[in-house]
Structure formats: structure tokens, C-alpha cells
Amino acid sequence: MRADRLVATLLLIQSRGRVTAADVATELEVSVATARRDLEALSAAGVPVYPQPGRGGGWSLVGGARTDLTGLNESEARALFLLLGPAAERSAPARSALRKLLRALPATFRAGAELASAAVAVDPVGWSGSARDRPAAVGMLESAILGRRRVRFGYRGRTGAAEPRVVDPWGVVAKQDLWYLIAGTEGGRRTYRVDRITDPEILDEPAHRPDDFDLRAAWQETAEQMERHRSRVAATVLIKKPMLPILRGRFGRHCRPDEQGEAPPGMVRAVITAQLPRAIAEQLAGWGDTVQVLEPESVRRELAAIGADLVARYAP
């Protein structure tokens, strides 16, 4: 787990004063490339870890060797916990390391560090699509969350027009190919897609964040609501057994094995869900004869229509 390695790397630098990527690789039993990426991640997150080129160089903390974490200032502690928090949520050892790290901080820094570790969540189960770059707005939203300041932005709905919003930012969630902001409004908790946010601005107004707010629990509830909305149509398909993992990788949680019915030798049944029959047909059209749709008829008709359009356009 990367969170374990990042903590261990930081403590190794503190104990030795200066290390090379090769030193870290040997100590933590990882490749030199992995060790270098971890060192660069700590530096990019704002932790005062810097490389010193040349003979006798390496990576060290500003101020030299340290034996505890009290050398971190408040902004550096927040940066570290903002980086480690999402990675630690799926690993008990990483959570334990994070708790020990938290106890090593000065008491005045702990509240901010705890908020940072809970400000970002990562949902590893995809819906569909490929990963996208982290939007620039995410960093600004994180700053607003940690600074407990309200945010104003325009939000593009399905009509495409941006409508003004002023919210209390509570947390951001990475969902494979998209980022979401969970925030408090006058109408209650709301979830916003970050790629639909325009012209975000941090206001000089205090934001209210409930003391008992749990970002991961709130996201789970939101994801389940989205799931129900996205799963209005279910299609049963036959696919060659070796291809099922690829199909599931493409559709994420919207594809599951179906063991209720029989399948020919070498084939397996699966169920794919989406909001509309057309959405399923468009996703499956490129699979050709690898996938056979058994039902419903609405998806079969959409596939036939797509095929007819392609024949009309491209047939000799």
C-alpha cells in the first residue's frame, strides 16, 4: 500500500538525514523507480522533501535530519495528510500508520491534519470510461475545505447554461474518470461534478461543516442513488469466458456475472445495466460477434439499428 511506503519513506529520511532513491528502494524492498516516484510525490504534496543533485546528494528534509514529526509546519502537515488520507482508507495497516503519524504532530496541528485526511476520498470501483487528469479546480476546492471557506461557482446543468451556486465545501471524491464535490447548501447536501463547475472562487466567508460528517459514508449514499438512476435497463448477454474480465473492466459495476441461466460451452452469461437501451447498444456495438445480447428486445433493436446505419453508410 502506497500510504505505508510514503510514511516509511518520510520516517527514513528523518532518521538518516539524507537518502537516495536507491537507499529507499533497498530499505523498503521496492524498485528504484517506485522509490523515486514516492519521493517526488511527497515533494509535490508540499512536504519539505527536496533533492540535492550531484555527488553526495540525495533527498533530505529542509533543516536537516529530524527524529520526529514536530518539524513539520501546519501547512506541510495538511499537505501530507491530504496526500495519505485517500490511500489509507482501504488498508488497515495504512490507517494505523496514519493514526501514529497524527499523534506525532503538535496538538495545534492535529485538527487541520485530520480534516485534510478526510477531505478527499477515492472510489476504486468504476462505472465506465477511462481515467482523466485531475482538474485544476480540485486543488482550489481542497484549499477551501481545509480553510473552511465558502465557494462560489457557476454550475452547468444538462441545458448547458451555468447557474450560480454558493456552497459550503465538505469533501471531494475521485471516481475513476470523474471528480465530485460534496457540499452543504441551503437545501441540504448536494453533489456536483467538478468538470461542470466554472469560475470557482473562494469567498472570505466561513463555511459550516458538520462535526459528524463522514465523507466516505456520504459518497456511498450518493453512489447508490446514482447507481439506481443509471441501472434502469438490464441486458443479459453471452460472452466468451476469457473476455468477461475485459467486459467487466469496461462497464465497471454495471456488469456482473449471471449464473441464473445456462450458457454454451466456453461462454458465460452476464448482465449489463444502463439508463437507456441505446446506451447499452452503443457500448456493445464495437464488440461485434464477441457478445450476443439475449434480452431485452429493446437493446437488440437498437443494435440492429446501429448495424443498419453502418451498412448504409459504409457498404460498397
Written account of the structure:
- The structure is a single chain.
- With 316 residues, the protein is an alpha+beta fold.
- The protein folds into 3 domains: 2-117, Arc Repressor Mutant, subunit A; 136-215, Roll (SH3 type barrels), CATH 2.30.30; 231-314, Alpha-Beta Plaits (2-Layer Sandwich), CATH 3.30.70.
- 43% of the residues lie in helices and 26% in strands.
- The chain contains 11 helices and 13 strands.
- The protein has helices spanning 2-16, 21-28, 32-44, 74-88, 92-103, 107-117, 136-147, 215-230, 244-251, 277-284, 297-314, and strands at 18-19, 49-52, 58-61, 120-122, 149-156, 162-175, 178-185, 188-193, 197-206, 233-240, 255-257, 267-274, 291-295.
- The strands form 3 sheets. Strands 4, 5, 6, 7, 8 and 9 form a 6-stranded mixed beta sheet that branches. A 4-stranded antiparallel beta sheet has the order 11-12-10-13. A 3-stranded antiparallel beta sheet has the order 1-3-2.
- It starts with a helix and ends with a helix.
- Residues 64-68 and 127-131 have low confidence and may be disordered.
For the biggest sheet, the summary is: 6 strands, mixed
CATH homologous superfamily classification of the largest domain: Winged helix-like DNA-binding domain superfamily/Winged helix DNA-binding domain
Secondary-structure element order, N to C: HEHHEEHHHEHEEEEEHEHEEHEH
Radius of gyration: 24 Å
Number of strands: 13
Principal-axis shape: globular
What is the helix content? Answer: 40-55%
Reported by name, the CATH topology of the largest domain is Arc Repressor Mutant, subunit A
Distance between the ends: 55 Å
What is the beta-strand fraction? 25-35%
Unreliable stretches: 64-68, 127-131
Which class do the helix and strand fractions yield? Answer: alpha+beta
What is the CATH top level name of the largest domain? Answer: Mainly Alpha
Name given to the CATH architecture of the largest domain: Orthogonal Bundle
The tally of domains stands at 3
Number of helices: 11
